[in-house]
Amino acid sequence: MKQLLLDIAADMTPTLDNFIPGRNVELLHTLQTILQGGAGEHFVYVWGEPGSGRSHLLRAWIHAARQQGMRAAYVPGEIPLQWEGSGLVAVDDVARLCQDGQIALFHLYNRLRESGGALLVSGPVAPAGLDLRPDLLTRLGWGLVYQVQGLNDAEKALALQEHARARGFALPQEVLDYLLRHWRRDLPSLMAVLDALDRITLEQRRPVTVPLLRQLLQIKME
Q1: Given 3-state DSSP classes, what are the helix, strand and coil percentages for the chain, each rounded to the nearest 5?
Q2: Which CATH code is given to the segment(s) 25-147?
């Protein structure tokens, strides 16, 4: 059972389709417009609390670009110094960049703007609250800035119920309540548990119950 949950969690590829927008409809529309080559600002900075979906959005945006045959890179750390020409780059957690990384991002920003590329950068706080080089902060503030609003419990509950229906099983309210109280708050982790529950109930012909969920979560925490 432990390996089952690990395998399912690893298989969940972040996409724009499985990102639940909640109060982030405008942000999602902006990212989709950039992918479609629409006019407007192509440099976006997003920030929000851990678990709000920042990394999901960046990875999903790059995944969608590659699916369309675009040149795109997701960067969780080191900046691609040799990146030339247009394309899309997503830089995750800019606050962790060292001085050399900040300089590299500054030059990458300039190259992408000159070539007609696009850049999506994430951070834990708004640009004004970052401890970064002033010239880089200026660049980040030139584009669009969005706070990624995490889903509240009611929105998570609706998303999980819809996910369960899509997989063809009913999610009892007591199971949903237990999951939201005792598991990680980010939606991909919550959905991975539902996927594991679905597999287990099908393979073992057991109903979705709180004791089964408790057993699954205990194994995952070992």
Answers
A1: 55, 10, 35
A2: 3.40.50.300
* Kind plus residue range of the DSSP H or E element containing 146: strand 144-147
Whole-structure pTM over 0.90, yes or no?
A: no
Helix (H) or strand (E) holding 31: helix 25-35
Those residues with Cβ within 8 angstroms of residue 69's Cβ, 6 or more apart along the chain or in another chain: none
The predicted-structure confidence for 109-165, as pLDDT tens digits, reads as follows: 999 999 999 999 999 999 999 999 999 999 999 999 999 998 888 989 988 998 898
Task: Tell me the residue type at 11.
Answer: D
Within the chain, which residue ranges are assigned CATH 3.40.50.300? 25-147
pLDDT at 10: 45
Residues in Cβ contact with 180 at an 8 Å cutoff, skipping those fewer than 6 apart: 153, 156, 157, 190
Longest dimension (CA), the chain: 60
Q: Give exposure, 76-97, as e/b (b: 16+ Cβ within 10 Å).
A: eeebeeebeeebbbbbbbbeeb
